[in-house]
């Protein structure tokens, strides 16, 4: 029932307390300056929205047919992931208790697009944040950000 006679009998949208806004924000991070800026932006969004920040590093798969390179490449990408986690922990410690942020770190194998798409789907992301491409080759193949936007499954924010 409503006090407005013009709205009587019409379905009214229902506001559910505590359910609006993003619950999970995924940020792609690979150690580049652009990805760190994207992670910082996503952290601010997650803090203000009281969302979970899922920081995702996609570990590139070794090239098939390249004998002997798969083990060293796996070790290198694992080391990169560990360095990223150490940097995230150091950054959150520097922020202190005034900056409350819930975050998780995930790694997914694959190319950046497939890995981030899988992460966003698996984590049920409400938003994806990535850094702008720093490579010239993206103009030929297409940047990660453009591919995520074209997938049209989540809102995508590209941080310069």
TrEMBL record:
Region (Disordered): 1-21
Alphabetized SUPFAM superfamilies for the sequence: Adenine nucleotide alpha hydrolases-like
Domain UspA, chain residue ranges per copy: 23-160
Family stated for the protein in its record: Belongs to the universal stress protein A family.
Protein's recorded name: Universal stress protein
């Amino acid at each position: 029932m409503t006090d407005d006679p013009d709205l009587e009998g019409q379905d009214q949208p229902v506001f559910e307390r505590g359910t609006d806004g993003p619950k999970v924000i995924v940020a792609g991070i690979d150690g580049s300056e652009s990805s760190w800026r994207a992670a910082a932006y996503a952290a601010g969004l997650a803090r203000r929205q009281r969302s979970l920040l899922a920081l995702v590093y996609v570990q590139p798969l070794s090239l098939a047919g390249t004998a002997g390179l798969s083990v060293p490449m796996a070790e290198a990408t694992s080391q990169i992931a560990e360095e990223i986690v150490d940097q995230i922990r150091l950054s959150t410690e520097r922020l202190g208790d005034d900056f409350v942020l819930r975050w998780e770190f995930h790694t997914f194998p694959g190319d950046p697009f497939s890995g981030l798409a899988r992460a966003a789907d698996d984590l049920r992301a409400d938003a994806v944040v990535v850094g702008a491409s720093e490579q010239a080759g993206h103009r030929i193949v297409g940047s990660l950000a453009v591919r995520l936007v074209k997938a049209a499954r989540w809102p995508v924010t590209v941080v310069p």
